[in-house]
Amino acid sequence: MKRRKANLLKYRAKKWLEKQGFCVEYLEKQFAIKKNGGFVFVKKDIFGADLIAINKKQIVFANVVGRKEEINNHMEKFCKYPFPPFVDLWIIVGEKRKAFYIQKITCGGKKYERQNN
Hints:
- Helices cover 21% and strands 42% of the residues.
- By secondary structure, it is an alpha+beta fold.
- The radius of gyration is 15 Å and the shape is globular.
């Protein structure tokens, strides 16, 4: 997914989650790496997630993707980290001009569930 489109999807997902009653923040670090006399900027997701969303009932780490074909790649990123059982892991899929839907995942038991919104 191209960077501009990815940033727009993250922004739209953040606004959508805020409408659902969550407080949302981006989870990315940006590094400057010196290369060939100049600098290259690299973004890295913290804990494999693009967003963290919290409310009084839930803590959600979310990854935003543009196509459902990318879900498996992002599930592997999430499963590298030892999340506690009370934390929800979501992959938010935002396809062209369609509403978002949530793919809930659990790494230990490999439980996958789709929730339309």
